[in-house]
Design a protein that fits this description.
The strands form 2 sheets. A 6-stranded parallel sheet has the order 3-2-1-7-8-9, sandwiched between helices. It has 2 domains: about 150 residues, Rossmann fold (3-Layer(aba) Sandwich); about 120 residues. The chain has about 300 residues and is an alpha/beta fold. It binds zinc ion. Zinc ion binds next to loops.
Amino acid sequence: MPPFAKVRIQGLYALPKAQEPVTAELLESVAEFFRRHSGRVLAITGAGVSVASGIPDYRGPQGTYRVHRGYTPILHHELIAHHATRQRYWARSFFGIRPAFLASPNPTHRALASLESAGHISGLITQNVDGLHLRAGSRNVLELHGSLRHVRCLDCGHLENREDFQRTLEELNPVWAGVGREMLRSGEEPMRRPDGDIELPAALSYADFAYPQCPKCHTGHFMPTVVFFGGNVAPEVRLRSHEMVEENGAVIVCGSSLATFSAFRLVRHAREMGREVLIVNLGETRGDTEAKWKVEAPVEEIVPPVAAILGA
Ligand SMILES: [Zn+2]
């Protein structure tokens, strides 16, 4: 593996960079990283891992921030405070959740699950909310930013399955349900985002969208069990994430620009604790200066072949 070269941090991460050639020697040096730490490796994954499952990366070369410069994600405090923001969120999510329901784990998800079963990694912290690591068979998974699988009442904490919640939204919004069925029939592919959002068809207005109150307490509103931009990672999750870094001898970052502070902080913590950090990502990351090693390549070209070399 080439020695880590410092890069200039420009305030915008994941700028497209020149990919290094994926040689047998490069793959062998990543495999050696796993052997050296004999099972005490923690994986930290990001949106880059799910791109091959059809879930786009916010910040990668084809990500939403690059395609739509004016795009601003819904912020946590806006969702809490405003009825209109919740209408907009649930209306977009009504269409946008479908790709997340339909997406399947890809070879990188499966390779990471195999590396865990074979004892090469001890666990995995993901920033992704699509649940694909669990579906691929990874067991010791910490979802740093939560998951789209459930919604939770803001007042009483009542949890509901996101698929059941979708059926309630369909009953409350028959016109939208019709448009959704038509989209499925025509195979139309609207613009998707990693959190389940979508571009809204012109004929529909957010102001008409109805969303349910909690059936238990009849006062609260539901929120997806994910951490929004501007929201905080739950204290117990943050604590556990730090413990997972400390329990391991090394960290491999897979397909993440580490642009969110909660993920960057883990890599910084690993470096401060003297843990060896390897980043596999095509594009600059916020953690480049914290890492000992950097492989400038898409994860799907590195992780599955390395798992094969290790017999996982
Ligand atoms: Zn409630």
